[in-house]
Amino acid sequence: MKLWNNIDGAEAEAQLRGLNRRLADLDEAMRDSQRMLADNPDSFAAKLGLNSLSQLQQRLQSERVELVKHRVREKVDVALLGASFNDHTASLGRLGIFLWRLQGLYQSIGQAITTGPRLRGPISQEILRATDLRLAHVFPSSFGMELFVTSSFDEFGESTSVAALQTLFNLLTATKRENEIGRLSAELGQRSVNHLRKVLTELHRDSAGFSLSWTDSAGTKYAWDADNSDIPRLRESISRYQERSIGEHIYDGALIGASLLRNRFEFMDMDKAILEGKITRAVRPQLREYFGQWCRVTLEQVEVFETVSGETKVFYTLIGIAPRTRQ
């Protein structure tokens, strides 16, 4: 199945790699400029500098939009590994349960990155459509499958399905990195962590491992794998972290560092405390006008308790932003 329409895929990937490098460099410069403006809100030079960088970022992002609008779908290769699949066949019932669990994990990530970590409540039909995985082919690799999902880039060059895929790989990679899994479990919430736990439980039940790979629109390859001996350890690693939602809190202060590229923010409250965390996709369209500005933000706060060390950390997700009149 074609991944690109009306454009040479290799040429588009090369152009996107160049644009992504320039946007990454620009992103660092804009973070410094935002902090400078927050420290000197009446500085004409600081405002001019940030405005100039912002205009350049918008031009580069417009070029990116023109390219990604030709990307029509994403291909994800999934391989189940283990004795149960050595003859390149799979139990229909067990395979169905595994794919259902994987679909649930992917959809919950799509919800978390769009509206913030939520344990309960329905996932919107828009997110369910954007994260609808489709099985197209199988291939021999113990038991391998090609899954596809529609890219659906919007007019801003954003895609829920692509962002959720990137976050899925980040989450899987974090299961092997103790200092990362706590942060991601807080930012994605208990719903996503529970779905991941169910995926690993199904694999453990079948004494199976699995691998996942995907190449994005810029040609960057994402890959993750775990054999059946890894699965129990990964389940144990996830179980060490317990999340508790503290709820939504409103803060006044200045947005001193926001990255649309990395979906991260730095916020300085009225007591000069620095709060850092994740930006939801729902807030992104409003964010640019508040770069380096005084504002009022709504943060979803999640507390994560690590059972072995007894350490507790609080993590923040930006779910709302509005003007604030300076006192």
Care to describe what's here?
The chain is α+β, with helices and mostly antiparallel strands. Helix content is 43%, strand content 28%. The protein has 8 helices and 10 strands. The strands form 2 sheets. Strands 2-3-1-4-5 form a 5-stranded antiparallel beta sheet, with helices on one face. The chain has a 5-stranded mixed beta barrel with strand order 6-7-8-10-9. The longest helix is centred in the N-terminal third of the chain and has 31 residues, at 9-39. It is globular and about 70 Å long.
Structure summarized in a few sentences:
With 327 residues, the protein is α+β, with helices and mostly antiparallel strands. 43% of the residues lie in helices and 28% in strands. Strand 2 and strand 3 (143-150) form a beta hairpin.
Write the layout of secondary structure elements.
Blueprint: H1 9-39, H2 44-68, E1 73-81, H3 92-115, H4 125-130, E2 134-139, E3 143-150, H5 160-174, H6 178-205, E4 209-215, E5 221-226, H7 231-239, E6 241-259, E7 264-269, E8 274-279, H8 284-287, E9 294-306, E10 312-323
Parallel strand pairs: 8-10
Antiparallel strand pairs: 1-3, 1-4, 2-3, 4-5, 6-7, 6-9, 7-8, 9-10
